[in-house]
Design goal:
The complex is a heterodimer. Chain A is α/β, with parallel strands linked by helices. Chain A is built from 15 helices and 13 strands. In chain A, the strands form two sheets. In chain A, strands 1-3-2-6-8-7-12-13-11-9-10 form an eleven-stranded mixed beta sheet, with helices on both faces. In chain A, strands 4-5 form a two-stranded antiparallel sheet. The relative contact order of chain A is 0.13. The mean pLDDT of chain A is 96. By secondary structure, chain B is mainly alpha-helical. In chain B, strands 1-2 form a two-stranded antiparallel ribbon. Classes of the chains: A alpha/beta, B mainly alpha.
Chain lengths: 479, 98
């Protein structure tokens, strides 16, 4: 086994035993990137010099007696998260040369814990998409089948973990952008509760549902990363002063008599996803869990509500790209002409689509019919979850209706939106949710587990127990 | 509901997006399709629901209106990110045209 294929926990115990240094581990990751990135288009930037320097410093810290779960562990960051002194492009021509002046709080916390920043990963432009095809810098290929998409919008981060470019990666999840590519790439993708982790330094998309999340090789690693990115940040007024801290160890949850809810509204699954989901349900029963069928009518309209709220917030958040203070700029004789020319030349088609849709929904006469109504539907979604959690401990769904689809095949934007059908309800309600692979071959299939608000501790415990029921767990993409 | 080319141009103008004729045709078709989809929400009864603008029960967090220190190196990168800058300032065009 190569060092870069290790989990965080395994690498940490090898470093502890003196069998591995952070420098060797970092070099193994950089080497994998060097050999495979051209083919897969996962990393938009690799900071080799910075990574090697940080690895040497981490080894020095260890020699001086310092310890930590992430000390010396290499990671990659989605390119819509600010990284000081490095380009942060959001995969847009608008920010193609933009250098971040500071680190996002989540990045700063990881660096402080001694984790090694390797570089930045590809995404759909400004995280608008579910396939990473909308990147201005080319599509990321799925490591399991290069003709297929990696999912999105954190497609680069998910593919990076699946390809062992790093031990973990950061992503962002607004309506499924961590969970979706995790499912397509056969890795674990965790979206924490809204407010659990700081949004400071994330390039804003939908401020009311954006959260940073992580992509890892298993749930235990997700737990280790979460422990370090969690917590109140005075720089994010929506971050929570959560007293419910994670305990030092992840205990495996017993499945006996655990009540698992399944919304009866789930439909439209591909044959393979359907049979895999059914099999998993049977395996859960055999392990002693109780399946509870849930009535969640809001599942049927949550997606439509999401695709009102999101474009509205995008049209407002992306107004800041005016070519004056940062980013690309096109000159014109008049100021308004300069705004228009800058935005016309530097926003891609999906970004423009969402800005137009959002501006329409917020424009005079439509606010109540769309935005306000969508926010009321959001209340219905939240209430459905509240009622459901009276009857069960966790809710499961397939992460996506199908396995990874072919590159350039999904042309209709509405069909792309439907990719998020099982993912947006948890986002609208701010609940923690994650995707774990339940089978990997020939293409990975993910299972989504949704927990109660701020109950990440139990969510990851149960995910860890579920992982043992998955088939071909140790399968790796053939790269 | 279907949007006209005039609607699309008007919205694009509000959003400061200049669209080509080809884009107007494309976005009119695509956005009309999406609007028809989200219009399905009109069937759901929400008369008894309050709007949820955010999920966590936060009070409006306010802080003192004070200037905070910002590291010099970060300040300098931020200023340099502006397409036009001079010394410690970002240069922007006039807003009012004579």
């Amino acid at each position: 086994m190569k060092f870069n294929e290790l989990t965080i926990a395994a690498a940490q115990s090898m470093m502890e035993a003196g069998e591995l240094t952070s420098l060797d581990l970092t070099k193994a990751c950089l080497n994998a990137i060097k050999h495979k990135n051209k083919d897969l288009n996962i990393c938009l930037l690799v900071d080799e010099i910075g990574a090697l320097k940080a690895a040497k410093e981490a080894d020095e810290r260890r020699r001086n007696g310092d310890r930590g779960e992430l000390l010396g562990i290499p990671f990659l960051v989605k390119d819509n998260i600010m990284t000081k002194n490095l380009k942060t492009t959001a995969a847009s021509m608008m920010l193609k040369d933009y250098i971040a002046p500071y680190d996002a709080t989540v990045v700063a916390r990881l660096k402080k814990a001694g984790a090694i920043l390797l570089g930045k990963t590809n995404l759909d432009e400004f995280a608008h998409g579910a396939s990473t095809e909308y990147s201005a810098f080319g599509v990321t290929k799925n490591p399991w089948d290069k003709k297929k998409v990696a999912g999105g919008s954190s497609g680069g981060s998910a593919a990076a973990v699946a390809s062992d470019f790093c031990l973990f990666a950061l992503g962002t999840d607004t309506g499924g952008s961590v969970r979706h590519p995790a499912s397509f790439c056969g890795v674990v993708g965790l979206k924490p509760s809204y407010g659990a982790c700081s949004r400071f330094g994330l390039i804003s998309m939908t401020s009311s549902t954006d959260v940073p999340g992580c992509l890892t090789k298993n749930s235990e690693d997700a737990y280790l990363v979460l422990k370090h990115i969690l917590g109140y940040d005075p720089k994010d007024s929506t971050s929570l002063n959560n007293k419910k801290q994670l305990s030092s160890k992840l205990a495996k949850q017993s499945l006996k008599n655990l009540k698992i809810g399944i919304p009866k509204e789930i439909s439209g699954l591909s044959k393979k996803v359907d049979s895999s989901f059914k099999k998993f349900k049977e395996d859960l029963k055999k392990a002693g869990a109780k399946i509870v069928l849930l009535d969640m009518p809001s599942v049927d309209y949550a997606l439509a509500a999401y695709y009102i709220i999101t474009p509205c917030e995008i049209s407002s958040n992306l107004a800041r790209f005016d070519g004056l203070r940062f980013g690309s700029s096109v000159k014109a004789s008049k100021l308004s002409g300069s705004y228009e020319a800058t935005r016309e030349a530097n926003f891609g088609p999906e970004v423009k689509r969402r800005i137009i849709l959002g501006t329409y929904c917020l424009s005079a006469g439509y606010y109540e019919a769309y935005y306000l109504r969508a926010q009321k539907l959001r209340t219905k979604v939240i209430n459905d979850f509240k009622k459901s959690f009276d009857k069960c401990d966790f809710i499961i769904t397939p992460t996506t209706p199908t396995e990874a689809f072919e590159i350039a095949k999904k042309k209709d934007p509405l069909k792309m939106y439907l990719e998020d059908i099982f993912l947006v309800p948890a986002s609208l309600a701010g609940l923690p949710a994650l995707s774990i692979p339940v089978s990997k071959k020939p293409l990975p299939i993910g299972l989504q587990i949704i927990g109660n608000f701020l109950d990440e501790q139990r969510l990851l415990s149960v995910a860890s127990a579920f992982e043992e029921l998955a088939v071909d767990r140790s399968a790796q993409p053939n790269l | 509901m279907s949007l006209s080319a005039k609607d699309i141009r008007h919205i694009a103008d509000l959003a400061k997006l200049k669209l080509t004729d080809k884009e107007v045709v494309q976005y009119r078709r695509e956005i009309s399709g999406i609007v028809r989809y989200i219009d399905s929400l009109a069937e759901v009864n929400v008369t008894r629901e309050q709007a949820t603008l955010r999920v966590s029960d936060l009070d409006h967090p306010l802080r003192e209106d004070l200037a905070m220190d910002w590291a010099e190196d970060e300040k300098s990168i931020a200023i340099k990110a502006a397409p036009k800058n001079k010394n410690k300032f970002i240069c922007v065009p006039r807003i009012f045209e004579s």
